[in-house]
Design goal:
With 233 residues, the chain is α+β, with helices and mostly antiparallel strands. The protein contains six helices and eight strands, in the order αβββαβαββββααα. The structure holds two DNA strands. Its EC number is 3.1.21.7.
DNA sequence: GCGACAG
DNA sequence: ATCTTGTCGC
């Protein structure tokens, strides 16, 4: 943690993104064997005037995809949502949640873009750099770039391109359901990132790591019920 | 200037 | 992201 990885000022944040983007590793540099894959997602709770940021990280065993650990961290929201500067709003809370984990993951799948970003530094890349961990981005919507239409069948995929550069892959993870936007986060190639997402897909649109994190972060499922399902201690 | 715009 | 009811389709 030599250089500051965060700022609250939008102007400085953009400058910082450009610097950090050059440090993102787009080639594979992950453990020989991946035993634990994590899902990261952030939710928000209204608290009258202000809001609380709720960061969740769930660690699953691979290939069983069973949840073996998780961490939840809540803190006052520090920044408003500004397209292109999402990581400055979410990453600090994610770091705090990560430090609460007992089981460190080998790879993290983050809800949002990796380098499929105007300045090539989406939330997945920012988090990966900060933690110096392999990460990949799994977004439900496009931030930038363009791509051809893709078939409605699960498994179909097309490249996401921006300014003559392939920045990600648009993947249909389920029949007739809007596709996912996958991209390199840090220390992983696009091909390997896509392979891991595919390896973690079951019957739902989202791969298990982020699907489980999303359920807890968004509070769509009572926390008490989730505990019973996961059966972890 | 106009439209787009992760979560 | 969050606020929110019913509704169409596999």
């Amino acid at each position: 943690m030599q250089l500051h990885e965060w700022t609250q000022d939008p102007k400085q944040a953009i400058i910082l993104q450009k610097q950090l983007a050059s440090r993102v590793e787009k080639n594979d540099r992950l453990p020989d064997k991946i035993n634990f894959v994590a899902g990261v997602d952030i939710g928000f709770e209204k608290q009258g005037e202000d809001t609380i940021t709720r960061a969740v990280i769930v660690v699953l065993n691979y290939p069983t995809l069973q949840v073996v650990d998780y961490a939840l961290h809540r803190e006052p929201t520090r920044m408003p949502y500004i397209p292109g500067l999402l990581s400055f709003r979410e990453v600090p809370a994610a770091i705090a949640a990560y430090q609460k984990l007992k089981q460190q993951p080998d790879l993290l799948m983050v809800d949002g873009q990796g380098i499929a970003h105007p300045r090539r530094l989406g939330v997945a890349s920012h988090l990966g750099l900060w933690l110096d961990k392999p990460t990949l981005g799994v977004a439900k919507k496009r931030l930038c770039g363009k791509h051809p239409e893709l078939p409605p069948q699960k498994g179909s995929h097309v490249p996401l391109e921006d300014k003559g550069e392939i920045i990600g892959t648009v993947l249909r993870s389920k029949d007739n359901i809007n596709p996912l936007y996958l991209s390199i986060g840090h220390r992983i190639s696009l091909q390997t990132a896509c392979n891991w997402v595919n390896a973690c897909l079951t019957k739902y649109k989202l791969p298990e790591p982020t699907r489980q994190a999303d359920r807890l972060a968004s509070r769509r499922v009572p926390e008490e019920q989730i505990f019973k399902e996961w059966q972890i201690l």
